[in-house]
Description:
This protein is of the alpha+beta class. It folds into 2 domains: 2-131; 135-229, no CATH class. The chain contains 9 helices and 8 strands. Strands 1, 2, 3, 4, 6 and 7 form a 6-stranded antiparallel β-sheet that branches. A two-stranded antiparallel sheet has the order 5-8. α1 (13-28) packs across α3 (110-131) and α7 (169-180) packs antiparallel against α8. It is elongated, with a radius of gyration of 19 Å.
Amino acid sequence: MWEQLKVYRQLDKKEINPTFKKFGKEILTYLKNYSIDQTSSIIKLYKVHNGLEQAVFIEKTVGSYNLKVSVCIKPIDFYVKHRFTMLAITPLGEIMNSYRRSHYPLTQEWRDLAFYLVERIKNEIEQFFQRYDSFEKIISHRLDIEPKALEWHNKYELLIYAAIKTRNTTLLNFYINKKLTGFTGLIITHSEYLKPDPKQINEIDFLNKIKLLGLTGDFDAIENEIRKVS
């Protein structure tokens, strides 16, 4: 078992990228209903439930053995379409109540680590996903989701969508105001994979338009605006 190992054997540098590529596929073999997107430095394992993409991100620091594991929940019709957009980021260590459990070394024991993370996905992470697996549950547990620091402002987008889907005018206005105050852009992993998108919207303008429609309670019009950019 990986967690019982006392010593790890480093990989040769030339083996890091090929091993990382195999690492994601190894994890996927043990998971039902998950799909994978992967680059040389990102593994995204994800599934879709109740209009929400539930994803596990494993990021490798370029030229390093270090891995960072986070989970994200994103509406499938979210207005930013890049496949590595990270929304409502929660480090694995936060879920496990141990900061160091967000970070792992990629070593010769990578198969043991893969199985260890499979167990975390099937247990702690799945319990986390189930707690927030509908827009109604997101609203019910919104105080647990609300950002505690500026760097997690991208959690407001999830709360904004949940307010839209549950047609809650008061919370929609509240969370849009929170987002637009001290605005921070979305985190998109590894910008080298981004390609210019002529259809990319101005997020601030879009949210202000949604806010005006929300003040009138016209949620059908809001849903139509979302469809236009989806």
